[in-house]
Each structure stands twice: as C-alpha cells, then as structure tokens.
Amino acid sequence: MKTNPVIVALDVESAGDARALVTRLGSSVSFYKVGMELYAAGGMDFVRELIAGGKDVFLDLKLYDIGETVKRAVSQVARTGVRFLTVHGSSAVMRAAVEGRGRSPLKLLAVTVLTSFDQQDLADLGYPCATGELVELRVRKAMQAGIDGIVASPLEARSIRALTGPRAILVTPGVRSAGAGKGDQKRVATPAEAIRDGADYLVIGRQVTRAADPAAAVAQVLDEIHAGSRA
Ligand code: C5P
Q1: Active-site residue set
Q2: Spacing, Cα 79 to ligand 1 middle (Å)
C-alpha cells in the first residue's frame, strides 16, 4: 500500500481558495484532484502552478468527444506533467485517449458508469442492461484499450479489482470516515474498507476541505487506513 493514498478534491470556486487550502494542508497532502469547477475558474494556469509547487495533479475532466478531439486534448494535457486524467469509458474515446497520451507518463483513468446513475438513468440513455453489467463491460473494454486505471465507487472496488488484476490503478471517491457527514454521496465506504477492497488511491473532498483543521482530517484518514491494514 502507498504511504499516502489520499488525493484531496479541490472542489472550490477559485484558484485563490484552492491555493489557501493547499497552503494549509502543507506537506500532509501531495496529490490533488482538479475537477470541472476549479478548472473553469483557474484553468491550466492553476494546474501548472500546483505542479510547479511539487504537487501531483489528477485532472478530472471526464473527456467525451469525437476521437480526434479527445486525442488532441489528451496530448496537450500530457505535456503539462499532469499525472492522472479521466475519460469516459466508451471504447472509441478510450482508444483516442491512449493514442493522444503517446509515450508520456500521463496515466489515463476510465469512468465506467457515473456513480450517481441508477437503472432509471441507464434506461433513459437506452441501455437495457443492469448498471453492474455495464460497469463490468466497460472495465474489460478499458483494459483492452490500454487504459491504466478505473475510477469507481468503493463498493465496486473488489469486483473491479478481480477483473483488472493487480496492475490497474483503482481510484475511489465516495470515501468517508465513520461519523463524517456524507453530503450528497449515497454509497460510501470508509477509507480502510476501500483500501482493503483493492483501491490504490482515495479521493476525499469535503471531509478534508470543510474540516476546521484540514491537515488533522487527513492525518485521521491515514491513521484509520494504517490501523485497518494492521487489523
Ligand atoms: O466531497 P466528496 O468527498 O464527496 O468529493 C468527492 C469528489 O469525487 C468530488 O470531486 C466528486 O466530483 C468526485 N467524484 C465522485 N464520484 C464519482 C466520481 C468523482 O464523488 N463517481
């Protein structure tokens, strides 16, 4: 297990707010997720600033477009030193992303089925299958396309790990310490459970970013994980 598998989601509305949080977290966090909100506010300038400050960046843009566009966008991201980038788990998108990444060290993560989707949402898209079946199909396609890892609910971690084998990078959001507020997340697991079930990295947002002492919140998560791995 990694000594620090925590990726903090910088879900804030400006580069200034994100910078203040990163400063408060100091050396307790070395990996940050920049999602659509902060990307729209601070753009690649802020991403480059994080990287220049020695941080690793997970750019969570969930790309989905025609192959050529995805390929070219991924190739731009690959040049910046971003470590992880998400794309949707449709075969043409994933293949284009792998092409765009080329020989760079950028790792591509596939989003299989959004964890906010239920059976009704799939029916709405015209998919007749169960969510679990679609997740499984897309994980297999991702591995075939040369994708490096999967973003998934911690409740799916065990079954996905069984499909991918040990080499894939498994990243799970939807992680909460027992007793921490769930916010709008419905299906959560504790950090220790997620790691036990095969996650390599945990994305944690509000439990850290809205804590009175964010660095202490990270320390608590790490303690729980290490206690869990000794149990
Ligand atoms: O605050 P919280 O810990 O719930 O934040 C989780 C982060 O992970 C958010 O940035 C959210 O967009 C992201 N995420 C998620 N579920 C997914 C994919 C990403 O919660 N399936």
Answers
A1: 62
A2: 26
Rounding to the nearest 10 degrees, give the CA dihedral for residues 148, 157, 38, 177.
-140
Task: Locate 46 and state its tokens.
Answer: 């802020």
- 32-50 CB burial, b ≥16 within 10 A, e <16: bbbbeebbebbeeebbebb
pLDDT in tens, the chain (231 residues): 678 999 999 999 999 999 999 999 999 999 999 999 999 999 999 999 999 999 999 999 999 999 999 999 999 999 999 999 999 999 999 999 999 999 999 999 999 888 778 888 889 999 888 888 999 999 999 999 999 999 999 999 999 999 999 999 999 999 999 878 777 766 689 999 999 999 999 999 999 999 999 999 999 999 999 887 766
Global model pTM greater than 0.90: yes
Separation between Cα atoms, residue 22 and residue 17, nearest integer Å: 9
DSSP label at residue 106: P
Helix (H) or strand (E) holding 211: none
Q: Please, are residues 78 and 108 in contact by the beta-carbon 8 Å criterion?
A: no
Residue with CA at minimum distance from ligand 1 atom 14: 173
Q: Which residues pair with 59 in a beta bridge?
A: 34, 85
Whether residue 89 has its Cβ less than 6 Å from ligand 1: no
User: Is there a contact between 30 and 53 (Cβ–Cβ < 8 Å)?
Assistant: no
83 lines ligand 1 (CB under 6 A): no
